[in-house]
């Protein structure tokens, strides 16, 4: 394990497999040397010990998926480059590397599923990077090991350059948790990579550290980040809170995701780091949502629009609604389509998602003017129907209702506006409301957040409680 490489003393030389250890540095053929000098350790927020394990111990593998391989893959190796030349790898296609994080694998699960889905929408090379043996020990061990994994990915890219004159501008690295920083390490070693997508980059031992230690905007021509389990007081999560890309997305505030039931830890940061240093932690639902959102964004590109805000509080209050005239980026796979993505680094974007798959939602601001009621207690709702038979109901207001007031609310609707077939108004009474009471929606105005477009609907007459009233465009 990695603690075997904690060497005490000066100029103690030993050989371990193919690596040479001297002092507090370890060197591996092809990959170079790795020291534990600052900023790699011994700085605030990164008081960890140890050096990375040899690549042979981590049993790193690269599995190629293409449309020719179907649901299967071909194991290819930069060390044995003929495996690449004899595979279905094509230098005429773009290439994505998918890199898992701590206690995970690249042989099955979300990494393989991501490759297969990407191939459905684009004829490309997708390479699943597996470093399970280096990711299954303690968290500190895995943190040290990603430097070697990143170096191996960089070596693979350089091999593609030599074999095919393949440009880094054709490469997209997608990494989750520690895999995000692994992608950053590869990008630090090979300049000009087209894009890196960091899916909830790991926070412990990376938050607040210098750029060379973690993922940062200089690691690729474009870096986009999804924060889904950010450590944000008083909660302590597995992800980073600070911006670390060109576009940083904070769905649902970036810390706690709807639909997840696992508890978020609330403790001092130092206590949390001590906990994960000595134990093997298991995947968090909140932490995993980042790659689930990315996956679904491939299928529902318009359902993950990010709004430019400084804080989640501003987003909730509507300060940054609707999108500005230059538009908003889409979180996930199509973030690179945003024309202003490189305007500056550390651009923050906020959005809400649904609690359940496919997680997509469309932010709208609704205004309801009532008819047929002077003053009554109850709640008013809107029901959205789409062309595929899906229905979602949302409460707009409750309490004392009257027709001299316009009721307004921001809704994150799980029905795509482009597929909305009809909208209905519904009200429900309280126990004290008269049984024969009636109410209707005189007008319903909807502002669509992604483009500021208005839709206006009218109700006709009134309905009794619990009976939907069909709204028609007016």
From TrEMBL:
Its Enzyme Commission number(s) read 3.1.1.3
> Which residues are noted in the entry as Ca(2+)-binding?
214, 216, 219
Molecular function (GO) terms for this protein are: lipoprotein lipase activity; metal ion binding; phospholipase A1 activity
Active-site residues (renumbered): 177, 200, 287
Cross-referenced Pfam families: Lipase
GO cellular component, as recorded: extracellular region
Give compartment(s): Secreted
From what superkingdom does this record's organism come?
Answer: Eukaryota
Q: Which UniProt keywords apply?
A: Calcium, Disulfide bond, Lipid degradation, Lipid metabolism, Metal-binding, Secreted, Signal
Q: Where is the signal peptide?
A: 1-23
Per the record, what are the reactions this protein catalyses? a triacylglycerol + H2O = a diacylglycerol + a fatty acid + H(+)
The main location is: secreted
- Domain (Lipase) ranges: 25-359
Gene Ontology BP terms:
cholesterol homeostasis; fatty acid biosynthetic process; high-density lipoprotein particle remodeling; triglyceride catabolic process
Protein's UniProt keywords contain Secreted: yes
Q: Which family does it belong to?
A: Belongs to the AB hydrolase superfamily. Lipase family.
Name of protein = Triacylglycerol lipase
Gene that encodes the chain:
PNLIPRP3
